Amino acid sequence: MKAKLLILAFIYTASIYGQTPKEERIQCGGVERWSEKVLVDGAVNTINFTPIGTTITNLINIATPTPTTTMPRQSGIEDKTYSVVCNITIKKDETDNDFHLVLSDGVNTLIGEVPDPTCSAASSSSYVSQFINARNFINTNIPAGNVFIVNLPPVIVYGVAFIDPPHGQTGAAANNLEIHPILDIQFYTPTGIKMNTEILKVYIFPNPIKDKLNIQVNSKIDDLSNCSFKIYNLLGSIVKTINLPKSGMELNHSFSIEDLKSGLYLYKLFNKEHIVYEGKLIKE
Hints:
With 284 residues, the chain is of the alpha+beta class. It has two domains: 18-69 and 78-187, CATH 2.40.50.140; 200-283, Sandwich (Immunoglobulin-like). Helices cover 16% and strands 37% of the residues. It contains five helices and 13 strands. It has helices at 2-16, 21-27, 34-37, 56-60, 128-141; strands spanning 48-54, 80-93, 99-104, 109-114, 155-163, 177-187, 200-205, 212-219, 227-232, 238-243, 250-256, 263-271, 274-283. The strands form three sheets. A five-stranded mixed barrel has the order 2-3-4-6-5. Strands 10-9-12-13 form a four-stranded antiparallel sheet. The chain is globular, with a radius of gyration of 19 Å. The termini are far apart.
């Protein structure tokens, strides 16, 4: 009886936000320590966002407590941010919509993750713009879907230390430490010059917008044969879907959004059902 009541409560909660249980599972992120993962927990203001330059070897040797699924942010460990030069060797799309990256120094590995900015709590985080920028780097430079051999130049990753309860994660460090969330990723060279290896360029304008939105996409590796543009409210519910015209390597399309109320929205650009770009949109 209790199980039935829980199921009914879940369906009701999803329905009042305009979502089916399936949509909620796809769009609303994780459960375990989710507030810490998206930086909306009560101790987020204790984090020092000035990054400590370090290595993966140093990070995987930090002494950490045995994690639980309900523990609060751990002082002395999870209140620090780090920047680390590494290679991304694997990229996975998690069931909670996080981008899961395996970061490697050639010997050791560490997990780094970027939340989906349209998920509940993540969309209200003060750091949602950093989530968007980090995911755009991934969408621009790594093919969509699960990629088990990523071939990119070295990157510098910046983000918050996080202790994740073990559940068979690919690339996990023995001490359960992760960079989660990742707040920035850039290409790294010894001279500090950012490499220009973009495989997808997306222009969404104007922003803020009053009536008509323009989308321009240039791709170097994939045809744009099945693109759609979805706009979400801050609860993660889809409020508008535009199926874009089939195209080759370039796409240029305009459409009206006069039917949207004024406010802040999030958007995602899909190609062949995979996210290739995402961002924020302001309707005046």
